[in-house]
Structure formats: C-alpha cells, structure tokens
C-alpha cells in the first residue's frame, strides 16, 4: 500500500502549517508587475518556489468591484493571469493558486474572489511574560525579552500562514492589557514585528489599557474628557506611528472584569472610545472597543452588554468598531447570537469569535469550529457587520496549536473571515489537503470520513458538555471539566454554574422568557416570539431561554430529562465513533501524528464520560428520575468527581498524566 | 409503590446473612425427639424462633438411604414431620424448612435430601495476625489475641450460617501455615471455637506446617520416616483430641511455593501424608493433602501436579484425601478441569474451589461463581470425588464478604457441596429470597433480572479479563488488574504472564497439544483427541491448549484476533448491562445496598475497560492488526496502564479512591 510516509520526504510535525512546500529546482515562470513592492516580491517568491503549473503573470489593475484585497485568476492558453487592485490582492491570489495546486484541483475558467471584510483580525491574548490567557499550545510566540535584537524565524512563518489564509491584522497582546506594551521600550519591539508582517499585508494592533496614562506616566486620571489624558493619547499615537506608519490601532477591554475604563470617571463607553479614536484618526488608525461587559448586578448577565451598549448607538466615531462576542455570555460551546448584532444600526460592529478552545476541551478535544461560526452567520447577516476578529489559538508548540486539528480552526477562521459563505466541509477539505494529508495518497472515502468527524465534532462537544441550551457548567477557573455543583462561598454569583443552569427539584434552565429575565425581549420581535414559546424554541436553545420541569414533554415525545440524558449519551457515542473512524486513517498519515490524535481522542472519550457522568449524576440528585434504559449508566461516582481538582491555571491544558492522577 | 423499606423493620446491612429471622411472640409448636442433644436443641430453637407454619415433629430414625446427614420432610394433615438418622440431619432439615418459608414456597408431598458428600469444608486462609491471604472483606473473624477468654458473637453466627447451608467442616488457618497454631496456647483457642461449632454439626480442622516438629520443638528433622517425628505427630494428635474430641484433622500444603514437606527429606507426598494420617487415625481424624505443586522446572506448570501425584495412586492411607484445585493451574477465571481428577482411581480425592475472588475482581466485582463450579462438575463426575472444599471469602466486614453478592458465593458453595445437581439459578433465587430481597415485595421479573445478572456475571469477567482460554495475565502480587506485559528481571518464569499467554508476532496461546507440552496427554483419550484439534477444541479453552496465528480462522468465520477483541468487548458490554439492569432494582431494596452495588458496578465497568484496553493494546503491539470496527476503541494508553501500580498486598482489595488515584 502506498502510504503517506513512503511518498513523503519528511515527517509531519505540523510546523509547516498549510504553507506551500518549496519544489526543488523549481522552474516556475512568474511575471510580476513593474511597480514592485515588498508584498509583490513575497507573492513572486512564493510562486517561484512552489508553483509547478503554467507561467503566471501578475497584474495590478483598477477594478472597484474587487475591493481592496480581491483578485481574479484567469487561466489562459499558455499562462495564468492573476490580477488585483493591490499588492496584497496579488499575494492572496498567489496563495490561492498554490492551495489549489496542493489540493490537486484544476483551475476553473475564472476565479474571482473579493473578501467580505476588509478587517480580518487575530486577537492574541498573550501576556508580556509569554503566558497566554486561555492558550493551550505553549508559550507566546512573541519573545519580548529578545526583541527587537533577536527575530525568531517563526514571526515570518506566522505572517505567511496568516496571509495564506487571508488574515490581515494581528492584535499582539492580551485584552487584559499591561500598559507596558505602550512604553517606548516595548514599542520598539512591536515595530520589529510590524516590519516583518508588513510585506505579508498584515497590520499590527495593540490592546490598550485605558489607565495607561496613569500607569505609565503617573497622570492623576484617565478621564477621557481630561485634556492631559487626551494629549497623552495623541502623543502616544504619534510616537507609535513614527515607528510603525501603518499601525492598525487599539483593541480595548474597558470596564469589564476589573479592567479600567471611562465608566470609572463617569464617562460612557462611547466617550472613552472616541477619545482614543480621535488620537488615532489623523494616522488612519481605528479603535476596536469590546462590548464584553457584565457588572456583578442583579440583571441577567446575558442582557448586560445590550443594556449598556445599545443606548450608545450612533454615539461612536466612525473609526470605532464595537467588537461583540458572538453570543451574549462568553464563548460557550453553544450560545444564541448576541442580540446586540442588528441592534446598533448606526454603529460599526464586528464579531469576536474564539478560536482557542477555552470552553471546548482546550488542546485535548477535537472540535472543529467552522460549523459553530457558520451557525452564527445563519442568524446574523454577514453584511450587517464590519469586521471579524478571532481569539488566536497560536503558541510556540512545534505544531503551533497544540491539537493538530486545532490548526484547522485557525485556518477556518481566516477562510470564513474572508468569505462566510464557504462551507465547513470545503474548508476542512482544503485544510486537510494542505496539511496532514499533504503528499499522502489518501482515498476519497477516507478524506470524507475525516471531514465527517470534523463536521460532527463541535456538536459532540455540545452534547457531552452542555446540550439543549445549558451553559457555563465549567469548573471554576480553568473551564476544562464539569462542575455544575460549583459553589464558592462569597464568589460572584454570575461566576457560578448554578447561576446559569438554575437546576432544582422542579426543573432546569434559565428563564429568560418574557415571564423571566426577558432577555428574549432584546431580540427582534419575530424571533423573540418564537423563542418565547418553549414549544417553538429550537431545542438547542431551550434551557438557555426557559426553566422547564424535568418531565416537560418535548415535541419529540421525550421528556426533558430523558432527552437531556440522551444528548449526553450521544456526545459520548459520537466521540467514540470519531475514535473508531480515526483508526481507518492509520495507513495514510504520519505514524506519530496518527498516535497523537488517537491519544487525544482517548482523552476526549474519557472526558466526555466525565462530563456526562458529572452533569447527569448531579442533575439526577435534583430530578430524582431514573436514567432511560438506552443510556449507558455512569461509571463515576458523583462524590469522586466532586473531589477532582486539576490544579491548573487559565493558561494550561491538563495533560494526560494530570487527568490520570486526578480522577 | 410498596418498597422493601416500607415493609422492613430494619436496614439491610448484610450482617444477618441468610439466617432465618426471629418472629416476635412466635407460637410455633415444635416437638423434638426424646434423646435430645445440643444439635437438636439448636434445630428446635431455630424453628421455635422463626417457623410460622404447622407444628413440626422431629424424629430420629434409622434409614441407611439417608446417609449420615440426610433428612425427610413430610407435610401431613396437621403437622410436618422431619426425620433423619442424626441430629445434624434434623438441623439441616430445620434450616431447609425455614428457607422455604422465607422464599414463600409451599411444601411438596415429600422432601428427601441426602447430601452428595459427607465432607463439605471451608478452608480459611486466615493468618494468626488476622490478615487473610486473598481475603477482601476485612480482617479474620478469629480474634486469636482475645481467645479463649473472649468469644466473639460472630463465631456462633458464622456456625449457624454454615449449618444453614450444609457446611460441616472448617479449616481455621491459612495453608501457608504457621506452626504456632499447633502450640499448646493456640490449641486452647481452637478448642474454644470448636466448642461453639459443635452444636452446629461443624468440625474444626487445622492447616499443619510439615516442619512443625522442627519449629515448635527444635527437632533436627521433619523426615516423615524419622521415629522422633512420627512420635511428635502422634503426641500432638493426642494433645489435640484431648481438647477437641471431634477434631477433624489436618490440611497440608507441602513442598509447594516454599512450604516444607516430605520431599525436603527425599520422601514422597504419600509418605508424608500417611505419617500424619496414622497419627490421627486412632482418633478418627483425616489428612487433606493438597496436590497444588509446581516446581520452577522446565515442564509446563499445568502438568506438574499430575506428574508428581498420579504415580502415587494407591499409596495413600484410607484416611488421606488428596485435595486438588479444580483446574491444573490456579483458580483462574476459567480453567479446564485438572486431569488428576479421574487419574487416581485408587485414591480418595476432593476438589478445592476458591470462593474468595482472588482472580475475579476481589470484592469489587460481581461474579457469581455457581456457574463456574457447575462447569467443573459437567466435566468431573460428582461421584468420582470424595469431598468438596472451598477457600472462604469470609472476613469481619459487617456483611462478612465485602461485596454483598459475594455472600451468594459462600451460600452457593455450601449448596453445591450438598448437591452439585442444583442449578445456579435456583441457588441464586434461594439466596436472594433469604437475603437482599428478604421482606421486600419484589416482582418476579425483577428477581429474574437479578438472577440473570448473577448467572452471566462470571462469563463477563472471563470475557473482559482472559477469554478463549487465556490465563494468568494478572498484575504481579495482588492479582487484581491486567499486566500481560509483566516481566520482572530474575523472576520465576512461571510467575510471569508471558509464560502463559506466549503471545508473539506470530500468534498467541500456550501450545499444550501433542506437538507442544502435551498436557493434553494427561486427559482421557476421547477428550484429549478433541482438545488436541484446534478445530474441535472448545473455544473457551482454545488458547489454553493451543498457540495459534493471530489470523487463525475460527469455525465461526472470525479470525482469532477479531474474536479475541469481541470477547473483551462483550465483557465490557455485559458489565454495562448489569449496571443498567441493577437500576431497575432500586425501588425494591435498601437504598444503601442499592448505592453500594451501583458503586461497585461502576468500578467493575471501569476495571473491565482497563482490562480490555490493557490486554488488547498489549496484544495489538504483537498482532499489529486493527481492531474490528464493531469494537469500542480503547480509552487508555498502554504506556499509562503500564505505569499503574496499585501498591496493594495479597490481602487487600483496591478501594475506589486508590483506583481513581492510580490510573
């Protein structure tokens, strides 16, 4: 049997990502436009190195319909013509050509692509000490201590990988921002990175701490209407742009989870954002102002971002974009879309997805997230938002992302930010052909099987973690395992799972209906009406919006309790099925990769059982109902599970050893 | 719903075993024979206390066909007549009456029972420090330190329980015997126990250390032909019988696993046994001489007892019984019967079963062993043996046996020693009605379900531990978990699992065929011929007798590898099914009992998966074959499992906590 290994020169370790592989002694004929640039040089070099097809002629044209970054590929008789309005457009076209070549796809008569968004941004939650909040793939790739003198070769590889998938902006540091990033010393380091990114069409952005003027220069206030403060930010912007003329702008987490912000000075989010935006405006920079706010107030947490931001509609300057998490709570395995989308028609809004799997099994679980993001776009018209951001899952692990399949989420994020109409299946197919199946002779049915695993994987996680609209049943702090029973004395109520599941002897679910918190009232009338009626509310959101009796009868005829049990069961069964199907892939991939995935799937199955047992046993203490007979009975004891303490922080993924020891 | 609890006065904790419950202000009319005795008094008292039916008249008669211990129950117009040749016969009849009453069974026209064996003996492997070798239910019930002054009330309860089930002999101490038990001080303690047992028709026996004359009285030798030694044993016998006139005799483990014996002095087992037998003979005592021998020799261990003992046929005195373990190796979950049975026609032989679950999951796993013992009797004619012994599973736990269902094995051993023709189902039914279902209003279908669990349980253990004739894949020392990979440098080869499974890249199994060790040649010709042909050898013994290629095709059409995988899978699936069915029992039993069993079943399922994964992953490294698609893939990693070290001794059962911590 012709295996991957017999066909491939080197072992697959994931370090190459989806980047085109250089062809030895390649004889590609590539013609670049006369008005050359660093970016065009990159495009030319990539094609020269790896393109094995007909000669390629790159041309800069003027075609408004292509937007800033679009391109056209036209295969001709004896050459392929690649045209774009801009050098980045040519670069994106070049990468598309190479991706199609790797996938073994023949070129159609014309490829015409225009990205849906001008801003396609990765948010790194990287701290300056190289820990990464909610990062599960090693340390930050930014080696601040060595910068700017020493430039890791990974910066360039990272830029290439992003450009190849259409990402054109990177926020380098955590939204829980250290002011130090804005100090002169750090800005020189940032400049070094920006210089590397520039040829790849990527702008650098920074997360800014709203209190930076106080923290860096001992100003007595950070009040956005204070003239000293305003001047401080203006001067800071000038300082940045002197070093980085194409600096992208600021991302700001303000008055959220303890971060400083304008409300500390009785100013609104709009006043704070506009002040910073005006400092950046002369230089062409923008402010991305996060709407992730929830005070420890009485109001339903899911309502708070809307309550705080919706009234500000129309008050933001035109270089401010309000960045809204996809759902109203916090990156749960499944949430309904945030009702802020569509509720601020006079404000530029962007969505913030989470690529890193904070709530989806960290680097241990296979969870392909394209279907989750597509689900968002099925509710929110892609044209109604201005830009797309994703919280990166990148670290300094050899394969960049910890779980080999987590790469596919980085890839899929970029592709969907480019074009939300792409299907999850097509993106998975693209990624597979350029990565783990690259150079392997994989039969179509095996590829289909892996795509199938990927496509079902996120729903499996939802099923074994928190189906039917349940959310935030996570262990305190690290968000890895189940802890629906978690109750920390004196803890913020809205940080406790019971705040969200509201399970008691009568039933389960958060009543957000018109009779409850009326979070439903924040949605458009038509939708709200449907959500408000438990019989019409989609099952996947049922317990998000309703508190229902354990024996409530679903339209399916099942009781709520039985259905809940069956969802958890299905999560385990699905995960086991992934494991079984993965076995079929063995002959076709690198043995170490095969083993690695096999091992992670085992952990995932064990975790799925842990989740299922923990949640069902806990809820059973309240429901006092038996498990339906078609459910595999629990193997754990609730009191044992309650003792589990992984002892990991918010930037660690539990290792197999740790999981073995602790359960 | 009328539950067990609403009908029952007290909580079920298993401490009462299957003993009849006293009825308050009972008005039973019981007529005892004139020639009273302590034993008849017990029978009378038991009936007076608990019998609620018609008056009972007990009569001593002379009827040779009833043997020593048989009885007849004849329900008449206005009384029930119970007749027997002996007081113990009446006692057994009384207990049978009470058992039938508890089970709610009406009396047929006549019950006539004659036990198949005169000797029905429990072997305690209890050490004098109260540890129990292979005991998993607490410390020894014999509190030697306090004896003879203090008499635990449990001695009498233990005697009642044994009498109620027909057991009439107890070896008090471990076969790995301390000579101290034969010292004057200890013999007084033994006498105290014997005095309590006597009214219940139970004789006391002791395990004797063959070197006792050297150890206790500094004789220079223990040579059985030495006159001083002969005299020592004669004197010791007289000393014992002065204290205990009905002392039963000695059980001897000689020249086995480091124990001293006649072979140390170049004498045969027969010479050793006869010397001791002659010391006991004047007093009516017997010697039970164990055939459990295997030297660290080249010969197949399964052959050694036969090689050593068969030539001695005819050389043993008539008060010696050779005690042979049911199988040729050592109490494995499944073994073929030992070929010594039937091979010593001129020697009295008895079978030694193991009630304690040394190799069947200790006190954590539900394994009802009646089917295993019935399987033995399907190969060995019950009439061909003289007596039956069982290694006890009794300890000082509240419920006596650790696992509540392990009581059923003690019960079933007694019942089968009484009558090997009883069915496992009937015995289970009897036991349930007198124990966990006693006083509960349990529907017939629930009883049937629990009997079904019990009847399938031992085969499930075989499937998840070592199906198809595999054996001794146990972890070194404690025999709890899997360790087919175990290899201890310098260790006795026949103590290593690889000695038994012989798995290599070519195949698996121990070639004991005529082309291999020819252990098959020790069996009768007809059977040997069938066993020798892998196509005719019963699948359950296939790898016991044959080394076969991984892809060997079974009559079923499956390959050996696939079938092995499916057996392991079935073991897990069965155990899960027990767990599921146990849920149905909840309304009918004591809640604490329900929880306890539920918890143990969880452990059993986890262990079944541990076994399956450990064995299959290990064997897969050799077979290099994929798991069939209908097998649930492993959840463990072999290297993790290889690291498991439970750190328990040969008298501990791993607790759930330990299992959680170590895996």
UniProtKB/TrEMBL annotation, chains A, B:
It holds the Pfam family Glyco_hydro_67C. It comes from the Bacteria. Signal peptide: none annotated. InterPro entries: A-glucoronidase_C_sf, GH, Glyco_hydro_67_aGlcAse_N, Glyco_hydro_67_C, Glyco_hydro_67_cat, Hex-like_dom2. It catalyses: Hydrolysis of (1->2)-alpha-D-(4-O-methyl)glucuronosyl links in the main chain of hardwood xylans. Residues 107-379 form the Glycosyl hydrolase family 67 catalytic domain. One of its GO terms (molecular function) is hydrolase activity. Its EC number is 3.2.1.131. Residues 401-630 form the Glycosyl hydrolase family 67 C-terminal domain. Keywords: Carbohydrate metabolism, Glycosidase, Hydrolase, Polysaccharide degradation, Xylan degradation. Residues 27-97 form the Alpha glucuronidase N-terminal domain. PANTHER family: ALPHA-GLUCURONIDASE A. Homodimer. Belongs to the glycosyl hydrolase 67 family. This is Xylan alpha-1,2-glucuronidase. The lineage of its organism: Bacteria, Pseudomonadati, Bacteroidota, Bacteroidia, Bacteroidales.
């Amino acid at each position: 049997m012709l295996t991957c290994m017999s066909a491939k020169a080197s072992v697959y370790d994931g370090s190459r990502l989806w980047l085109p592989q250089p062809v030895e002694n390649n004889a590609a004929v590539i013609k670049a436009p006369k008005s050359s640039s660093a970016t065009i040089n990159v495009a030319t070099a990539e094609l020269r190195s790896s393109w094995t097809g007909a000669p390629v002629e790159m041309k800069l044209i003027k075609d408004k319909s292509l937007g800033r970054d679009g391109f056209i590929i036209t295969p001709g008789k004896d050459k392929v013509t690649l045209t774009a309005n801009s050098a980045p457009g040519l670069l994106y076209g070049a990468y598309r050509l190479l991706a199609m070549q790797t996938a073994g796809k023949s070129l159609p008569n014309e490829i015409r692509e225009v990205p849906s968004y001008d801003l396609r941004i990765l948010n790194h939650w990287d701290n300056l000490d190289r820990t990464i909040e909610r990062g599960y793939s090693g340390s930050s790739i930014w080696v601040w201590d060595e910068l700017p003198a020493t430039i890791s070769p990974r910066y360039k590889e990272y830029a290439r990988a992003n450009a190849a998938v259409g990402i054109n902006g990177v926020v380098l540091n955590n939204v829980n921002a250290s002011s130090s990033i804005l100090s002169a010393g750090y800005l020189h380091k940032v400049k070094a990175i920006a210089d590397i990114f520039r040829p790849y069409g990527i702008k650098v952005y920074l997360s800014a701490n709203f209190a930076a003027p106080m923290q860096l220069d001992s100003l007595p206030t950070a009040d956005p209407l204070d003239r000293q403060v305003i001047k401080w930010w203006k001067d800071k912007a000038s300082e940045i742009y002197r070093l980085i003329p194409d600096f992208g702008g600021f991302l700001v987490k303000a008055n959220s989870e303890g971060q400083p912000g304008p409300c500390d000075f009785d100013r609104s989010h709009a006043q704070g954002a506009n002040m910073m935006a005006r400092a950046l405006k002369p230089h062409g920079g923008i402010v991305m102002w996060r709407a992730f706010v929830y005070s420890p107030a009485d109001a339903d947490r899911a309502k708070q971002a809307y309550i705080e931001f919706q009234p500000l509609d129309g008050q933001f300057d035109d270089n401010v974009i309000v960045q809204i998490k996809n759902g109203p709570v916090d990156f749960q395995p499944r949430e309904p879309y945030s009702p802020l989308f569509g509720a601020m028609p006079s404000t530029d809004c962007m969505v913030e997805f989470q690529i890193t799997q904070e709530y989806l099994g960290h680097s241990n679980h296979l969870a392909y997230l394209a279907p989750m993001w597509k689900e968002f776009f099925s509710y929110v018209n892609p044209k109604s938002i201005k830009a797309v951001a994703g919280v990166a899952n990148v670290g300094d692990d050899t394969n960049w992302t910890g779980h080999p399949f987590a790469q596919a989420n980085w890839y899929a994020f970029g592709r969907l930010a480019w074009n939300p109409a792409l299907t999850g299946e097509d993106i998975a197919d693209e990624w597979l052909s350029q990565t783990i199946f690259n150079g392997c002779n994989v039969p179509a049915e095996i590829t289909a099987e892996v795509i199938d695993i990927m496509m079902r994987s996120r729903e499996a996680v939802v099923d074994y973690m928190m189906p039917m609209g349940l959310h935030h049943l996570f262990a305190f702090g690290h968000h890895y395992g189940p802890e629906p029973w978690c109750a920390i004395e004196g803890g913020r109520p809205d940080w406790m799972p019971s705040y969200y599941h509201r399970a008691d002897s009568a039933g389960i679910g958060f009543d957000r209906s018109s009779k409850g918190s009326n979070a439903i009232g924040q949605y458009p009338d038509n939708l709200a009406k449907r959500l408000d009626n438990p019989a019409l509310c989609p099952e996947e959101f049922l317990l998000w919006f309703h508190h229902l009796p354990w024996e409530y009868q679903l339209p399916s005829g099942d009781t709520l309790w039985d259905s809940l049990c069956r969802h958890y069961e299905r999560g385990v069964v699905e995960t086991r099925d992934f494991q079984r199907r993965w076995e079929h892939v063995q002959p076709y991939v690198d043995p170490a990769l095969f083993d690695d995935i096999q091992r992670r799937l085992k952990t995932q199955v064990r975790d799925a059982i842990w989740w299922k047992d923990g949640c069902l046993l806990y809820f059973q203490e309240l429901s006092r109902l038996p498990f339906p007979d078609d459910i595999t009975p629990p193997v754990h004891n609730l009191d044992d599970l309650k003792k589990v303490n992984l002892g990991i922080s918010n930037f660690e993924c539990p290792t197999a050893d740790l999981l073995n020891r602790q359960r």
